[in-house]
Structures are given as structure tokens and as C-alpha cells.
Amino acid sequence: MPPPTRPRATPDRHAERVARALAHVETHLDQTLDAPTLADKAAMSRHHFHRVFHAHVGCSVGDYVSWRRLQRACALLVSGSEPVLQVALEVGFESAQALAKAMRRELGATPTAVRRGDAAACQRLLQPWPLWPSPRPPEGAPTMQPHRFAELPAGLTALTATARGMVDHTMTRAARQAFGELAPALARAGLFDQARSWMAIVPDDPQGPDDPQCRYVAGVLFGYAMADGSGQGMRPELPLSGSLAWWPMAPGRHAVFLHVGPYSGLHAAWDAIYRDWLPASGETLRDDPPLEVMLNHPEHTPPAELRTEIWVPLA
Predict the structure, then answer these.
(1) Which of 315, 295, 290, 292 is nearest to 305 (CA)?
(2) Together in a domain, 120 and 159
(3) If pLDDT is split at 50, 70 and 90, which confidence band does 80 have?
(4) Nearest CA among 263, 166, 250, 266 for reference residue 215
(5) Angle between the 13-27 and 61-79 helix axes, to the nearest 10 degrees?
(6) 186 in any annotated domain
(7) CB-based contact 307:296 (threshold 8 Å)
(8) What is the largest CA-CA distance in the chain?
(9) Domain extent at residue 238
(10) For residues 142 and 222, what is the distance between their CA atoms, to the nearest angstrom?
(11) Which of 23, 295, 300, 307 is 20 to 30 A from 104 in CA distance terms?
């Protein structure tokens, strides 16, 4: 009997699941609407939903929910006379002060100004969401195909350091902090020669443009090179301090993509993978965090020549 063939996915499969999450947002603005909740509604992996969402919608889950809540609040304030507190609770803010703070931050306006109709900043929110649906990739967006498939063996454990917080919509500062803690720890322990794979893990979905709790996990594998699957994993003895910890790597099959260029372009590569390649591939995601593996050193390599592998876990 021939082996069963892998079912092919239609390009609209993931878009339909994201649309299911968006529909839930519309009818539950007064309830918890974080990425895990919406991932469950979309019947998707919690580790991957926020990337699929961003690839299709063009922003994070937190940004979209905030936009819809502010849009609904503006509409209610302009069209009715309910107290600001009632409006705030109806769209998911815990108080009138929380709504006012969000409006000042995002619109440079106040609920009173919106109700008077003299806050030009809120006009943008009264228009339909401009990025959904997105029938085609943005002009100049990269196309991504796996340059190989790799099996990560069982039993690997990475030494990691963790930093938190987004600044200016990026994790750049957290990345520097995490690697700035990890690298000196290896130097003190004399372990640089045994470090074979340097990686980044971002296990959290940002809950807004500058989420202070979003984690960036910098990691290193000793003895095993993910770039070619050579070597034997090791777990050397060294004292743990600060945020240093051992992170068990999830074994299994991965699609591995190669990004060449500055780290600032990685978000576009991620979008292309989850928006274009994944829906058409017929592959199913495994509920483990994806990885970025650094193949060369950013301090010794021009940005245009940086090489980064993106590892996407597959079932």
C-alpha cells in the first residue's frame, strides 16, 4: 500500500482562521482578547498564531484589539451621550481613566474632545481597517522557501538568558541585554570554544507596540551545530546567575529558511513565511516556539551579509 500523501492546504486556510479570530473580537470587545484567547478561537497553535495574525493583518494582536476598542469607543462617544465610564467598560477598558490614557497615547485626544467632534486624530479610527483583507503581498515583500528541512534531535538543552520589553516597536534593546548577559557568562566559564549554535527565541506575542513584558530569549547550544546537524549536544557545568537558565529544546522536524541581510528585515521574512509559504505548503505547525539561528557574528559582519536561519517547527 502506498504511503498516505500529506493533505494540501489552500492558500485561504489560515486567512479563514484569522478571520474567525477577528469575528470573535468584534463581538467580545468587553472581554479578554489576548493572543492565547484568539489562538484558541482560531484553533491554531499559541506559539505561532501571533505570527500568522501579523502576516495576514499587518500588525500584532494587541495593536489590532486596541485599534478596534478605540474605534468603537470613538463611535459611541460621537453618536451617544452615555457616560465615559460606560463607554470604557463596553469596549474593554477597566475605567474611564484607562480609556482616556489610551486615547491620549494613540490619538493625542481626550474622550471629551472626541465627543465634541473637534479631535481630528480620531477620524482615522472611524474608517474601515485598511490592512484587512490583504489580497496580495506588499510591493517588494520577500518570497521565502525552505532551503532545507531539518530534524532537531531529542535531548538538546540550550543555555539561555532572558530580557523583557519592546522599545520603539522592536526587541533590539532586549536582544542586546540578553546576549550581553549570555556572552560574558560563557567567557567567564571558558566555554566559547564549545558554543556551536547561537539562537534567539521570542516565545511571547507582544500585547501592544511597546509591551514591557514581552520576552526575548538568547540561547546557545554546546557541542551541536544546528547549521549542519553535526556534533553531540553537551551540558557543561557552570554557575547560573541572573536570568541564566537551561532551556530544553523541542525535538522534531523543522522547515529552515535562510535570511540574508540586517536583522531589521527579519520581520518581513517571518511575514512571508506565514502569509505565503505556510498556507500553500500543506504543512501543519507544531506547538513549539520557532527559532532564529545566527550563522555569523553581527559585530564582525556587515549588516548586508548577516545570515540568519529561521526554524519553523512542523508536525
Answers:
(1) 295
(2) no
(3) confident
(4) 166
(5) 40
(6) yes
(7) yes
(8) 73
(9) 148-313
(10) 33
(11) 23
pLDDT digit string, tens, across residues 232-275: 999 999 999 999 999 999 999 999 999 999 998 998 899 899 88
- Asked whether residue 143 is domain-assigned, the answer is no
Which CA distances in Å does 72 have to 77, 102, 111? 9, 13, 12
What percent of the chain has pLDDT above 70?
87
Look at residue 293 and tell me if it is in a domain.
yes
Residue position matching grid coordinates 534567539: 200
- The count of structural domains within the chain is 2
Task: Tell me: do 176 and 275 sit in the same domain.
Answer: yes
In tens, the pLDDT along 154-213 reads 999 999 999 988 777 778 889 999 999 999 999 999 998 899 999 998 787 776 666 778
pLDDT at 137: 55
Q: Which CATH number is 35's domain given?
A: 1.10.10.60
Q: CATH no. for residue 301?
A: 3.20.80.10
| pLDDT given at position 242 | 95
Residue type at 197?
S
Cβ–Cβ < 8 Å for 52, 20:
no
87-118 pLDDT, tens digit per residue, is 999 999 999 999 999 888 888 888 888 888 76
User: Which residues lie below 8 Å from residue 234, measured CB to CB, with a gap of 6+?
Assistant: 194, 222, 223, 224
